[in-house]
Amino acid sequence: MPPREEEIVMRAIQLMQPGRPVEFHEVDIPLPGDGEVLVRVKAAGICHSDAHYRSGVTQAGPFPVIPGHEVAGIVESTGPGVASCKPGDRVCVHYLVSCGRCQYCSMGCEQFCGTGKMIGKHRDGGWAEYICMPYRSIFSLPAEIPVEHAAIMMCSSSTSLHALRKARLRGGETVAVFGIGGLGASAVQLAHAMGARRVFAVDINPVKLKLAAGLGCVPIDGAHGDPVAEIRKATDGKGVDVAIEVIGLPATMRQAVQSLAIQGRAAIAGLSNRTFEIASYRELLSPEAEVIGVADHLAQEMPLLLEFARQGKLKLDHVITRTVPLDAARINEVLDELDRFGDHVRTVIIP
Ligand code: NAD
Ligand code: ZN
User: Fold this and answer.
1) Model-level pTM?
2) Domains identified in the chain and CATH numbers
3) In the list 25, 100, 103, 248, which could disulfide-bond 270, CB 3.0-4.6 Å?
4) pLDDT tens-place string over residues 48-71
């Protein structure tokens, strides 16, 4: 349904300043300008990073900002000069808005674009009825992929894919994923899809460990016992070729490095503003281990990610554990739960 002429405001959630709960407000519906697309949001995920933006652990702004960087929906209207999509198309939204011309954009690493902005952090995101985006950030959604799945793929799965690619995972290698939350539940499946021989899934929450076992992983309970020792025991003392940290704790970042095999690669994606320690000789130099930072993901990774989901290699039914409406109190509760590492995996807002 196109917006009625008199429909000029929309329901939205806004973060007014860090350290404060998010709030419900009515704001103007954005108008698509040259090369822009107005998307009616059908689903928007709630990521642990949103809890970091709310608390101020990661700096967002300028404020107020509409959070939400996991967004999928239907094209409502397009501005002049848009030929790649049309009203009614099912689409998902790549969360980075970049210039497309600078050195980093030309190199295909648009997360470093000098004027780049992330939706839901630096500019308005998808916890609203509509979002306006440049056409280059809009990807067509294959019919096989439900819109709620597409939404959470826009960060949780895409960051996981980027982490595995940064870690240069090759077919036949072993992988350990630390944290089976929103990101980790995708990371283990994508590791299998990319040919991993064995995938260890470390968490401290029995609900998450059960989910991981159902996804064909070897569950490792970090709450009882030492996950590094468990991984070594299960790999004849060798360790894993690739470790992915998707929690954001110095202790588990270190465990990821400590669980590596000779010439293993640890990709760290969990956000923290604290330092973590590595025993330089024993854990880094001597095994020629690599520690790799993971920032966001790339538009060029979208086709592969969408194809994995279309083929059923990435299944998200059990990853979305609840939906909520555009209700500030409910959303603040979800963010509180993420801060406490609760039982839910991904929550999706249905506006
Ligand atoms: P989440 O809360 O859904 O998942 C975290 C998981 O870690 C939970 O299952 C929790 O039980 C588990 N956990 C907590 N403490 C643990 C411990 N000591 N040992 C083992 N497991 C433990 O979070 P998410 O949405 O999946 O995000 C994960 C992290 O990745 C967050 O810090 C988020 O901000 C970050 N992130 C980074 C990027 C990036 O570009 N680098 C992108 C998206 C998210
Ligand atoms: Zn995210």
Assistant:
1) 0.97
2) 9-141+319-349 (3.90.180.10), 159-293 (3.40.50.720)
3) 248
4) 999 999 999 999 999 999 999 999
